[in-house]
Specification:
Elements: H1 8-22, E1 27-33, E2 37-39, E3 46-48, E4 56-62, E5 67-72, H2 84-125
Antiparallel strand pairs: 1-4, 2-3, 4-5
Helix pairs in contact: 1-2
């Protein structure tokens, strides 16, 4: 039988986690590079190894301020790596869609928490 009583501590914890993750939604960084990757042992994530001579394009978008910075390695502007710009452009579009989807999901989670809290309060106040 499902538990229909919501724990206020769990609701608060969920809301806190949502709000903390909202900070991650404020900046979108997109890195397109030709090179190698290393696995971070602590997180298990793969990270690009980028040095001063690594052909790369980096875009950083501050969603709240609206600032956009894109840095191109000179080798990505002409020659064999010119098509890297198109790949990067596609990744920027995908990244923006992911951000939009995450914002919508966060809105739904916040609404869910508010609805659960309201339902619990209504139940607590009923005779």
């Amino acid at each position: 039988m499902p538990n229909d009583t919501a724990n206020p501590k769990d609701e608060r914890s969920l809301l806190d986690r949502i709000l903390n993750k909202a900070e991650d939604l404020a900046t979108l960084e997109i890195l397109t590079t030709v090179g190698t990757v290393e696995k971070d042992a602590a997180s298990g994530r793969y990270n690009a190894v980028v040095g001063a001579n690594t052909p790369a394009i980096l875009t950083k978008i501050e969603l709240i301020e609206g600032d956009i910075v894109t840095v191109f390695h000179r080798d990505t502007l002409t020659g064999d790596l010119e098509e890297l710009r198109e790949i990067h452009k596609e990744r920027e579009a995908q990244g923006m869609q992911i951000i939009n989807d995450r914002i919508a999901a966060v809105k739904e989670l916040v609404k869910l928490v508010a609805d659960l809290r309201g339902a619990r309060q209504a139940k607590d106040q009923s005779p």
